[in-house]
Design goal:
The protein is α+β, with helices and mostly antiparallel strands. The protein is about 20% helix and about 20% strand. The protein is built from two helices and five strands, in the order E-E-E-H-E-H-E.
Length: about 80
C-alpha cells in the first residue's frame, strides 16, 4: 500500500480457516515476538480467498486492483 513516510508498506491479507476467528490485534500480538518490529504491517484485511495466477502463484495485481477500486476493506492498527 502507498505510505506517506515510507512510500510503500505491506497490507496483510488474511484468510481464516472455516470456523476460525481472529482479530487483527490478536494476529499482531502473536507475530510481535516472532518478527522484527518493522516487519509488522499496520494494515490488515480479512479476505475470503487469495487470488491466484494460472500457475498457482498469489496474484498481487488483483489485490492491488481491489485496493485501488476500494473493494478491499482493511483496518489500521498503530
Amino acid at each position: 500500500m502507498p505510505d506517506e513516510r515510507w512510500q510503500e508498506r505491506p497490507l496483510c491479507c488474511i484468510v481464516l480457516r472455516p470456523g476460525a476467528s481472529a482479530s487483527a490485534e490478536e494476529l499482531k500480538e502473536f507475530l510481535g515476538p516472532l518478527v522484527a518490529k518493522w516487519w509488522l504491517p499496520e494494515r490488515w484485511a480479512f479476505i475470503e480467498t487469495v487470488p491466484k495466477t494460472s500457475v498457482g502463484k498469489f496474484d498481487k495485481k488483483v489485490l492491488r486492483a481491489q485496493y485501488a477500486e476500494d473493494e478491499l476493506p482493511y483496518e489500521t492498527l498503530d
